[in-house]
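Writing this down once: the sequence line spells out the residues, with the fold written below as integer tokens. This is how one looks:
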Amino acid sequence: MDIEELYRQHGSERDQLADATSISDLYTRQYGTELTRWESYLLQKFKEKETARLFKYRGFVHHTRDTTLVLLTPSPWLMEGEFIYFSRDQEFPPDGAFIEVTGPRVAAPRPLQESQRVIQAIAAETWATLPIDYLSELRPPMNLRELSSVLFERVGMGESSKRVFAQLFVSSPPYLESIGGLTTGIQAIASRTQVRRLLSFIRKVLPPAMRGRQPIYRNVQGVNVKTPHLWRFDVGSYSMNRMYQICVKRRDQAGYKEVSLSTITEAETASLPDVPLALSSEDFWVETGNPSHLRLPILKSAITYQMLTPEISKRSIDAGTTHILSRLEAMRESFGLEEKVLARGYLLDADVLGRPLSALKLARSSARAYWKDTVTSKDLKHAWDRVLEPALKEFMELTELKEGAERDWGKGSRFDQFDTRVLRALRNLDTGKTGSLGPTLKEIADESGVENHIAAETLARMKDSGVLYEPRPGHYRLV
């Protein structure tokens, strides 16, 4: 899909501003063309003139280092707006609150006294917190299917994996006082170079201000304003301790409400993320593309998703959790794993903040993507049955395959060059009995679900690499 087609599908009909490109920072976008539709709506209502001396503003509070000043902006994602002055005997609004304030324009006293700087502000004669009641008027952003197709048109990958990666951009709101967001770990059965290309592409779709750590304060007209800690998108390689804090403790030391993370995992970190994925070489490829062409429409959708907090009842969570726990037990038994895999931080983590919460985060992310404000037990079970359980099973099967290959052929062996479907089929069919001729080409092709010529090509490559032998023509055994 070229850039004109992208804007035609997700541009003017959905958002009159979506065809404007920009490289500006997330928090200092210019009013107008770079704003989301709902930000433009709020900008229109940001300022009113009450009388010759009184002004009324409605916006989001950003605390500053000056305990008498706050920055009021039309959007929590902006750092441009109006300073509001509060006297020391007034109640101070909480950071991030949506308020209405009325008062005259004055020079902020502290900067004037301390450094002779004139900072214009509105003296808060009256103020009140307002409900955010405009969501019903917002036009929904791209849904999950559209987002996935736009993001990964040039990526060869299973559709279910594409949807999981797309959900990173949708994120998920906090629950049980833990951070929201979504975490995905990749076990690179495929070439690590290709997986790094995918991660690099995903990273560059969003602006730098959404990636990694940001300074605690940003300078706005000479005043240090607290940087909004709404959502951070992390892509890369992370230490065990950092991943443990986000994925197991469900805390972010930087103070963000939501953290979406995607990383290549090693053996000690593979079980930590919400969704562990294993990408096998035969179904995976990445074409070179320019992610900056996708930045503005996807950024606008990603910001808009943050406005919705889908609710779910305790009864629905209990029903969904009961279902998930029974499936976790069944998976443990089917793979012959020890009971400790159900403990906190292990692969089948059955704790309240473990896999049940991972499924809930997926369900609430999907609800956001389809602009639904409620999540049912059916949605929670669907997130488990259709997304998380299949991902866990495939991850365990491919990881088991990788471990077996390393055990048989040595650590660092290049099994990523083989079609893992064929390798897995051969492992299932080769009984290992002394004197056995081994399965035939047709049996291997049928078991793996690939065409005969693909199976034959992979088997020939494996034979040349010395990992199998052919006791009789057309029969194959693993070394």
The mean pLDDT is 87.
